[in-house]
Protein 1
Amino acid sequence: MFDLTPDEWTAIHLSIRIAVVATVVALPFGIAVAWVLARKDFWGKSLLDGIVHLPLVLPPVVTGYLLLISFGRRGPIGAFLDEHFGIVFSFRWTGAVLACGVMAFPLLVRAIRLSFEAIDRRLEDAAGTLGASPLQAFFTVTLPLALPGVIAGMVLCFAKALGEFGATITFVSNIPGETQTISAAIYTLTQVPGGDAAAFRLVVVAIVISLAALIASEWFARRAGLRYHGD
Amino acid sequence: MLVVDIEKRLGEFEIKVAFESQGSVTGLFGSSGSGKTSVVNMVAGLIKPDRGRIALDDTVLFDSTARVNVPMHRRRIGYVFQEGRLFPHLSVAANLDYGRRMSRLPHDDAEQRRIVDLLDIGHLLDRRPGRLSGGERQRVAVGRALLMRPRLLILDEPLASLDAARKREILPYLVRLRDEAHMPMVYVSHQAGELRRIATTVVRLDGGRVMQTGGLELLDQADLDAL
């Protein structure tokens, strides 16, 4: 029973691609926002914090709908991007990336922010006295020391992106080969008679991918931890 | 020559300090809370004075009226912190090389070997800071600060976290640094005994003010005051 059909393989490939791209694209923004939230005090900081965390508490359908009316073809941002850069999100896999990225963003920011806050800032001063500009100090001291948290955040982000359903289906629908991820495919299969076996196969695949990501992150984090605190 | 004339308010505490140091090792002496660390932090550029002027030889580092404030990473002032502050994710060798890399100085193997030998840390190069004893850690911290070729070396209570035996182990290296490397230093301590070994001039601070400036005899006076 474990022969996956071409359609199922397509859904698996698509899911992994969407989750990987969402994680990679979200990472620099996540690091920047986490750093600002961990280190800066400014007017409107709690507002930024709130907006970043909003997808965590809003119903995913609401987030998806908000994306649809702003990033859709006729939405203000979507129309602008289409017109000037030829970037289209609606009903494309790139839209699924956007939806997954937005939904996973709070988890990414949270993990990285916590690791920034745990770093001894006096080490950054030491780097400064040794001639490192603030940017150099960030890339040679702060970020390497935060690496275990960054990896944890990336795995959380990947897992969330892989399993994202509500916002994605609302924003870019459920088009096989374009926006139909594992989750959407499972949902579809449970709606049709005789789809149980196929749904079960995809469930097993989802479990395997998630476990693999978790184990990989443990391994990376342990290696990073050893590098920093061992010998 | 280091010229310091600064004011800084830190909450209720006010620092108002002026001194010039010609000696090769200026001992900044005073009890804890006298403002010693704040003064050297302003010299190194870690904190900004409210008003005043700091100059090293013919370079102005800070001048509030001329609106000069050289950022710390361009001051070329080596700083040995009380707790060493070695980078835990880098080997001893990479810690030692860090200042040279960041300041984009060329490799100088001879200089590196000279300082590694002077501080006797050659056998530690492959280790991580987490595996060093307190004394070894401070020697590496001194080496790291020296290898960025500073114009001035600040040592803020570098021996305070060490026991008496470790202090005796490190002080001779610092004296060699003074006599062989001719590195101008500002040495912060509340221990008269330590300063008597290393300092050539003494600035005595109390309550954020300079009480006296002079030679080592100020330390004897301090001992008498303490009695």
Protein 2
Amino acid sequence: MRIGLLLLVATVFLPLLLKSLNHVPSPSFSLEGVAQLADASAEQSSISYREQFASSGATREVHSAVMVRLANGNMRAFWYGGKREGAKDVSVYTAELDLLTNEWREERVLVERLEMAQQLGVYLRKIGNPVAFRDSEERVWLFFVTVSVGGWAGSTINFITSEDDGQNWSEPTRMVTSPILNLSTLVKGEPFLYTDGSIGLPVYHEMIGKFGELLHLSSAGEVLDKVRLMSGRDGLQPIVLPSDEDSARIYMRNATDLPDSTLFETWTNDAGKSWAPVVRSDLPNPNAAVTGLRLDDGGMLLVLNNQHDKRNNLSLVFSENEGKSWQLLHELEQEENTPEFEHQFAYPAVRQSVDGDFHVLYTWNKERIKHVRFNAQWLQERLETLK
Amino acid sequence: MMMWADVGTFAASLLWVALLVKLIRAWLPRKGQAVLLVVAIVSGMVPFNGQVIGAYIFSLSSYLSVSTILLLLGFLFFSVAGNRFETFKAYWSPDQQWLVVVVFFVLSGLLLYPMAGGLTMLDPYRLGYTGTPWSVLLFGYLFSWAVLCVLKRWYLLLALILASMLAYYLKLLPSLNLWDYFIDLLVVVYSLFALLKYGLCRFFCRQPSN
């Protein structure tokens, strides 16, 4: 009987052994998200820099805006809004930007707590950060955080997809990303594509430890791999900036609240098979989210709070040497705090539209989502001033 | 993807029914236990604020592992079947068989959860994604246990491991991570308490208890 059982065990385990030994090669980074600077600026003649609000002020608070380029050329934004962060009435809102008129169409609720709870078959206490991107088949993906119990440390990631530029959406899928009751995985950094069509999703863990991670998802949204970027209690909300098919840099929010806190930084030169030990960059960070774009000349453009504490400044900074040095390009916001009021310019997102313009969205004093649009010529001119 | 939610809610409902049966059955005569089981199942189907109890538990527990589902089903089966399957039950769950299962879950939990929670840069949960670097280590761990189970005649644990492996191949849960099929936090916490109780009884009781 024992021989028979041993044979049974061998038979059951053989496929697992073969699968374990057959290492799936890491896909290369797609460069689809790299912003085109040279071509776009050549086509444009005049400098353009415009500001407006993307949200209407329909909710008392708004936060965590992101944006995606649609197949029709327009841009679609997502953010969450409600009475306050974490309140039960918080929903994810969406609005479309008409690229030609530069006007935002009326916002609408996309993810509503009770409806989502019904569809997911769970109890939901609150809804949090959304992130969006467009895959190689022109599907728009929206990943968003939900919490059933406790604070943000109890978060789970879900996603919905749309095949018609965000008019209609799929049923939600609840992702399994953690062995600890599937809790404490959150999103903020924008997803990116690999050359094989699979998806990279920067995430972070916030229960006891605070650290960034990178999920590798199939084109169907299943988690294929999870890479830890750091351990400890210090780093959140990674963003990934690929420079070529094998190389990328990651920047992470510094959660330490120390007076001299700076963004964390790591990089890979083997398509993410290994990441360098995380180091502190030279960029200040007041425990706030950062976003960025890789430019086609190899430079990096970051949008961040350019000081060690408080969020009353939001700036564009540029590096042409892989982060060895950074230069201030422009202050999007700079306001003095008073004892009565503390300004909050936070959670930026940046994307390039098909016409070559750059769009920055950010939380403006938690009241509105602000939209800053500038063209490549404006950016080129700012870059010229640095030389 | 309502199907996956249904799987999760079903498993969580099993946990609810098993908890009710475990808590109340000592006070009921044998005949009353079948009624209790029916009441427990029905109570799991009644919606509160639009969700059944299983959905609330699923919100907290997430997907239970295949091992836990099988143990819950076994517990409920023997609760209803009463004395009719005592010989069968005695074969599958004498003290030593049960103790090995508990030790397996505690050891596996100690290997997985502290480091998966961020204690180190190493994340053993990643080993569960087969085909990723070092995932062969998890194969080695489980295979060693399975062979040991055959040699030592620990058939209950062997059955749990093999069933979890088959469920993994058939992708009966939404996760592609092998850990999620044979272990979850609830069964590890339960096993920790069971092992603690066993250890205390070794010191303070005349007869070891399971």
Protein 3
Amino acid sequence: MTIQARGLTKHFGDCVAVDGLSFDIRPGVVTGFLGPNGSGKSTTMRLILGLDHPTAGSVTLGGRPYRELDAPMREVGALLDARTLHGKRTARQQLRWFADAGGQPRTRVEEVLDDVGLADVAGRRAGAFSLGMSQRLGIAAALLGDPATLLFDEPMNGLDPEGIRWVRTMLQRFAAEGRTVVVSSHLMHEMQETAEHVLVIGRGRLIADTSIAEFTQRAAGSHVRVVSPDAGELGSLLERAGGRLSAGEDGSLAVGGLSAPAVGDLAAEHGLRVHELTPRRASLESAFMELTEDGVEYRPQAVR
Amino acid sequence: MTPFPVTVRSEWTKLVALRSTKIQLALAVLLGVGMSALLAWILGMTYDDWDASGRRDFEPIGASLIGGILSTIFLLVIGVKAATGEYASGMIRLTLTASPRRRRVLGAKAIVVAAVMTVVGILLTGAMFLVSQAIFASYGMQSASLLDGDALRAVAAVGVLSAQFPVIALALGFLLRSTAGAIIGVFALILAPPFAGGVLPAWYADHVAMYMPGAASDAIAIGQLAGATEPMLSPVARALVVAAWIAAFLGAAWAVFERRDA
């Protein structure tokens, strides 16, 4: 099921939270939704789920707005804020009313409790759960209807490394099964290992809609670090070969525009000594920081 | 499409799974019955001092049901919390992702609250009546039997009408999204009309007061009893007034709920 936004806009009073977003999220890959806090990620998720009403534009799932889906729980599983399941109810009670609401059999409750590893604590009050356990409970709720689309807002929050690996593997498995998987995060390192495609938003605007590989490559900052006692001679050779040079703090060279093998071969051809040759790929973080330099909302009264 | 009974079932599960709901319902019944018994006992203890006209005018049915006022408070809070509790915890977002058609959510909640309150209200009213009549009889006072038509009608009407203000409280909860605000609101609705009757010109008492929600339901329940002042509206008209108030509050709640961001 494709999620399609067209000119999606949401104002809260004078504050523009989402500003003319247009995108298509396709099934079969994990799509990362990236943006700093207050960039409009969560608002966009709430708009997709029909919880908030757009000021302008529209967003549809398989061509229909969320509110018109026949069996929403079988079509979309959402994890919004892990704390929303909390209260005085036990984990099992929480899932029971939710299963009832979505027309899912009670047997699914025990299945998803097993799936997320909460079967042993299902009789405990969810209010006493750690953040990691709350996340697992929220994920269990999202899985109840075995949905074709998964929409996870910051699912890795509060999880330990083992839990993060678990979520990542699960999301990738769902995508491989042909489902539509959207995951938002500001843990960009994690996103790099989880998502195949990214939508980057800052201040409610779409900044990039591209594959992770392209996103990191396109970003400036990918370079080859070269340490050589013949740096002067090598440097001029590299410049003639089309490299962009800058000096590192420790006397190394940062060479942009040339691959590590190309730099090594060039040095060897001219008999120059190379002590270190390291390809440095720009991290998602640095790519992101560069793209959103104007997009970050620093004011403390940040947008929801 | 997810059928409506499914939404009703989930609202039922949500409400009765809470221990606080069960505790409040139990307290409502215990306090109502206890209060009625206490009032009946005080009446019985002082019966010897009553003059002849006081004894003649004593009306055992109405006197046995006054204690229910305390119970009302607990029932109202359950109605309010069925709405505001979801906003406080953020659970409303889960509810609406599972059931995105909001009118159904509101309707299902109203049905569940009304059903629970009607059943509890009938049990409570029946228990208050039986306990009080037993106490009246033991003091040699005039007492009534449930087999008596007036008594049965009064008990049934007061019982069923226990649902009126909790459902209005639910609607106010959706409108205000604040537990304290909605509780204050519904108390204002119950208490303001009689108060207004005391300070406003007689025109209010003659032409408006009987259309107020509390006045209309009191009249249905006990207006027909011997000794009560002549009611100004027929029982059917009063039932319609009660229904119109409930519909007005639920309608307002729906209009706001439908448009608002969750």
Protein 4
Amino acid sequence: MEYLGTNSYLAIKPEVTAGVAVIPTIFVPLVSEDVKTVVNYKADDRMKGLDWKSDSLLRGNRMHEGSITVLGDPDTLGHLLNMVMEKGSSTGSAPVGYTHPFTVGASKTYTIDIKKGMYVQRYFGVKVDELDIEFKDNQMECTLNIKAQGQVSIGTLGVALTGAGMTSIVLDDEYDINPTRGLVAGDKILVGGVEVEITVVGVDGVTLTCASTAITASIGDPISLVPQTVSMGTLSDPFYFGNMIVGFGTDIADAIANTADRDDANMVHEMKIVIKNNLLAQNGTNRIDPYQILTRTKEAQIEIKQLFTGPEQRQAWFDRKAQAISIVGRGKFIKSDFTTWELVTFNFPNVKLTDNDNKIEVGEFIIDDQKFEVMYDAVEAEAMSAELVNKSAGTVY
Amino acid sequence: MKYKNITEQDLSVIGVGIVKVGQEVEMPKGFNNANFKIVKKEKEVETKKLEINKE
């Protein structure tokens, strides 16, 4: 049987304890993904009297990493920011919308499920290494580069199931000595062609308990995590580039003031925001998977293209002059009287140009092709902040 | 089997339609979604209660 990628899904949920999987319940429309488990197998080339390189593979340390691309709708964007920044206390209510502040700090880990045909690929302890926010075809598109502490998807039966009265399913240890890690009570797995619901994930790391079932299956048979039926709340449109406003200023108050009126704002025709956590997936004792994923130095960059209209930006580049940028994006109205709306704000109180090219081509306008490094600002005592107004209560983050 | 939407939002379920908050709906065979909980029949609940009382 063939499986079409269009039938896939991405489901996510913040973890209560970092690295301890939960069943994802927030379904996010997926654009593309290439997350993979790097198994680091190595041919066993020890001398065994053979005239051939190897007759088996040995394990290296595993890594789980890759990218996921989704559109930046106001509700999904909240989760993406929650993965890369620290969410403060949310305020508001359903009728007027919820406001979620984000600052530089400890981000949440997530469990994510990706449906791949007849099985689900689950990664847990997921952290975001880099969040890229850009605009394609006017739509906010977000790419997450992630690292995970482990995966579960397909396993192998270690002890035969012999028919009526079976309540224990034991997995073999060919992949890992704790092959059940990442499974959760309530998950459904497919064993011997029969779907069963896990009631207990044993502390021994190999045993799953289920309600009494009459499965017959042999040692070595595959076990797979069964996909969920997709359920989604009302999906908002992504933020549109045409509804974004970019304000430049000498300080952040000035930049914010310049977002209040479209005539005061800078018209930019390309923009990308990159937020990096520079994660370290630390392999060592305790597990073949990364035992922990640590955040190193945080950083951010902004790339902007705007028409060249004067010498100011080139001067700012040469003189390493501090500027402030406030980026505001408005979505749909939330309150029925049209007085509150979906809104995202990024404030960068101190940015400096690392590149400002004025390329010329026949018949084309000259542009300021700019790359800003986001600096820590001593006055505001922060490098950046974000605020999001959407229809999702703070409890979902 | 009947399932209840246990989230705080109305959900659109592929092949089923919109299920309101708290609504109980008969789901097709093979339904699997952690936003929903199986609705136990009253008889099952009563039997459980009796078992607990006996203990």
